[in-house]
Amino acid sequence: MKMIKYFSLLLFLSFISCDKETKTISELENIHASIKTEFAPDKRVELFEIYFENTDNQLILEGETTSKKAFSILIDSLKNRKLKFTNNVRVLPDSAVGDLKYAIAKNSVINIRSKPKHSAELGTQGLLGMPLKVLDKKGDFYRVQTPDNYISWVDKGGITRMNKENFDAWNHRKKIIFTKNFGYVYADKSKDSEIISDITLGGILRFIGLDNTFFEVEYPDKRKGFVKREEAIYYDTWIYNLKPNQENIENVAKKMDGFPYLWGGTSSKGIDCSGFTKMVYLMNGFIIPRDASQQVNAGKIVDSDLDFIDLEKGDLLFFGTKATKEKKQRVVHVGIWLGNNKMEFIHASGNVHLSSMDINHAKYDEFNKNRYLGSRRYLGVNDEMIINLKKNKTAFIK
Questions:
Q1: What is the pLDDT of residues 66-109, one digit of tens each?
Q2: CB within 8 A of 155, min separation 6: which ones?
Q3: Is CATH 2.30.30.40 what the domain over 173-241 is classified as, yes or no?
């Protein structure tokens, strides 16, 4: 009888212990969720994926984060509760990438994917010369962060990795920026010479020399070549001469008319809706958020009445599913308002093309008019999510 009572007591204490462990982990998960909401609400630009386990009465932390501050707050919370724990969390970048925590895109366009494999969804793209932070490595892929803070994976063939010293040296050297939609870098000062690679709108290379017809340039991996002088300009001159106004927004946008649609694309080789708006603003001197669902959170709200009356050329129009009592608003598409007394906007859907909100217009877009959610103004608005290259000249190349 005593033995039965003894085992019953052990069982009872075990239930109490399990209940206490479950309660502790649940409490920690709530703390984690609260910290994540404040410091890393969007995993596309900041990672804070921490998991808690209880093994043999030992609390174990697993996961990864890019926010040292958020993780420090979490650790302090555990210590304040006098909890003993084993920390297996990776704070990125870590030893997986060593001292080579930076990279420069070395192909005309690099495909940056949601997972470290070629078959994964295309998340975004990078342009030749684009600076990247390197966060992690898995096989032949590196997890990188672009100037708009977007985090995804790129294969090793698209980048040249660098330490801080070499990265800074690259960024402080004189550059040229390619200003045509498409072109080539040649092996010699002749358009009939061997082609080193193609190059697309917004591509950047190091300047070496100049003559009447060609820029001599250098890639981040030390390859050298020549770019037609009329197809590029000194980066510093480009920045100085930028006039980010309504007319230039329209001019750049219309030069992309007919570009093919590509989910995840942000280049002249293929472009999605938010990649299009991003590229138009980039060539007008702004780095803006990557996705439509991020772009809708930047800038100034306009056209609250959804009647298009207060819109100005260059405003971004957002489309999707309106909020209900049960669900939040869902943004799935974006375009650029042109107006021109024809209620026109330009967007990437199938390809880049003009549409109109005017029922009498030949390009009336009833589908998008019915799912219109509102607009945001970027021009003339100070917003930390909109990087103005006129004021921060090195943001795109540093």
A1: 999 999 999 999 999 898 999 999 999 999 999 999 999 999 99
A2: 111, 118, 140, 141, 142
A3: yes
pLDDT-based confidence at 22, cuts 50/70/90? low
Specify burial of residue 65 (Cβ count, 10 A radius: 0-12, 13-18, 19+): buried
The CA dihedral of 369, 370, 373, 375, to the nearest 10 degrees, is: 10
Reported as type and span, the H/E element at residue 45 is none
Active centre residues (catalytic): 273, 333, 347
Question: What is the gyration radius of the CA atoms in the chain, in angstroms?
Answer: 26
C-alpha closest to that of 299 among 261, 250, 336: 336
- Whether residue 7 is predicted with pLDDT greater than 90 in this model: the reply is no
Give the DSSP H or E segment for 282.
Answer: helix 273-282
Pairing of strands 316-321, 330-339: antiparallel
Report the topology of domain 102-170.
SH3 type barrels. (2.30.30)
Per-residue pLDDT band for 10 (boundaries 50, 70, 90) equals very low
pLDDT given at position 58? 86
Distance between CA 32 and CA 71 in Å, rounded? Answer: 9
Q: Which tokens sit at 14?
A: 């075990």
pLDDT tens digits along 354-370: 999 999 999 999 999 99
* Fold exhibited by the domain 246-388: endopeptidase fold (from Nostoc punctiforme) (3.90.1720)
CA dist 394 to 66, 174, 204, 219, 287, Å? 23, 11, 12, 18, 11
SS3 185: strand
